[in-house]
């Protein structure tokens, strides 16, 4: 059942420069160690400042860690269940951290969802309407999550939600950012990337209105998507689990340091901004007519140039990329996106900047 169908007739009208950052005297090859507690202990910078709009000048007090938004993405499920039983690893002084299984029925069934995608229904129409008894399970669950961790856009919403996902695509460690204007998250992602180095960690920016979707984590003031792969659906890999675990730990460390009043100098962050979602070639009846070309398979984040192979038909014909400039593909051949008509998404590299940041009342 599609979530949209449950709302038909119920909606009201009207709803609807690239160099590594290195401030003078603040960061050198020998001093990068301050990023992680294991590597260094101090960091000096200019006076912290954060836009009042994003509400991050005051300490962050409530953080949720979501696993099982999709029930067959098992790294987050296993970690959250572990932390529900023993939360010592994710607790931080002065911070309330709540591990939470977002879609328990889908987790029990081992499927992405029961009726519809939970990670697409956190919009005003689904959250604001009284649902009939036969509403899709995920719509009902979205309203429960909204009550527990929201309200979305409200002052009482959770400060941060870390939403843990796996992908079958070769995305490595990926952080998902929903706006280019959140200084706190730009600083946090910069910190996490530095902690994980030399392992790469990519930032996927999904701020284009036409391509943005209503995520589970968007209930929080500062939503953080965590995507780690490749990992098949319904499978656990120790290396992928470890990478996700490290990302969560570094994110919580950053929040604790921010709450303690640590100053974070102005920084820049390279991100990949989504531009277009590309479907598979299809027959007249809608069936897929070509597969991802071997030259593109597993090449997430790598340059894709005009004329490069992207699809291969069953009779051996290569279909080239028909764009007019170099892009960077992501979620290449993602299993969960077959139903969404997405073979891959194209992105462009963009550099974001964040002003210096600290908490005004540690």
From TrEMBL:
Keyword entries, A-Z: Cytoplasm, Hydrolase, Metal-binding, Nucleus, Zinc
GO molecular function, one term: hydrolase activity, acting on ester bonds
Entry GO CC: cytosol; nucleus
GO biological process: acetate metabolic process; aspartate metabolic process
Function: Catalyzes the deacetylation of N-acetylaspartic acid (NAA) to produce acetate and L-aspartate. NAA occurs in high concentration in brain and its hydrolysis NAA plays a significant part in the maintenance of intact white matter. In other tissues it acts as a scavenger of NAA from body fluids.
Name of this protein: Aspartoacylase
Principal subcellular localisation of the protein: cytoplasm
Lineage: Eukaryota, Metazoa, Chordata, Craniata, Vertebrata
Compartments it resides in: Cytoplasm; Nucleus
Segments forming domain Succinylglutamate desuccinylase/Aspartoacylase catalytic: 60-255
Record domain AstE/AspA barrel-sandwich hybrid: where: 268-347
Enzyme class: hydrolase
Similarity remark: Belongs to the AspA/AstE family. Aspartoacylase subfamily.
Cofactors demanded by this protein: Zn(2+)
Region Disordered, annotated ranges: 1-24
CDD domains: M14_ASPA
NCBIfam families found in the cross-reference section: PRK02259.1 (NF002601)
SUPFAM superfamilies, per the entry: Zn-dependent exopeptidases
């Amino acid at each position: 059942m599609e979530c949209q169908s449950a709302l038909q007739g119920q909606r009201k009208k009207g709803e609807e420069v690239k160099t590594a950052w290195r401030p003078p005297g603040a960061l050198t090859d020998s001093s990068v160690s301050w990023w992680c507690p294991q590597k260094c202990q101090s960091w000096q910078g200019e006076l912290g400042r954060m836009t009042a709009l994003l509400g991050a000048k005051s300490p962050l007090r409530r953080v949720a860690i979501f696993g099982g938004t999709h029930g067959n993405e098992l790294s987050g499920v296993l970690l959250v269940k572990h932390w529900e039983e023993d939360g010592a690893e994710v607790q931080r002084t002065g911070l309330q951290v709540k591990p939470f299984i977002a879609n328990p029925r889908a987790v029990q069934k081992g499927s992405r969802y029961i009726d519809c995608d939970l990670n697409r229904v956190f919009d005003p129409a689904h959250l604001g309407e009284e649902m009939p008894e036969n509403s899709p399970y995920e719509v009902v669950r979205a309203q429960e999550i909204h009550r527990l961790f929201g309200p979305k856009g409200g002052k009482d919403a959770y400060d941060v939600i870390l939403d843990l996902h796996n992908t079958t695509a070769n995305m490595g460690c990926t952080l998902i950012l929903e706006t280019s204007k959140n200084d706190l998250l730009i600083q946090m992602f910069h910190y996490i990337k530095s902690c994980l180095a030399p392992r790469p960690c990519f930032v996927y920016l999904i701020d284009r209105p036409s391509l943005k979707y209503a995520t589970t984590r968007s209930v929080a003031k500062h939503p953080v998507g965590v995507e780690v792969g490749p990992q098949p659906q319904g499978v656990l890999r120790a290396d992928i689990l470890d990478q996700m675990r490290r990302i969560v730990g570094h994110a919580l460390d950053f929040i604790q340091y921010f709450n303690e009043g640590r100053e974070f100098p102005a920084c820049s962050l390279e991100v990949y901004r989504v531009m277009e979602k590309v479907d598979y070639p299809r027959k007249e009846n809608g069936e897929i007519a070509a597969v991802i070309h071997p030259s593109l398979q597993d090449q997430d984040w790598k340059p894709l140039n005009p004329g490069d192979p992207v699809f291969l038909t069953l009779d051996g014909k290569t279909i080239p990329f028909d764009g007019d400039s170099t892009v960077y593909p992501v979620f290449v051949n993602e299993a969960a996106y077959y139903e969404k008509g997405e073979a891959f998404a194209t992105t462009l590299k963009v550099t974001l900047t964040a002003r210096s940041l600290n908490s005004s009342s540690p």
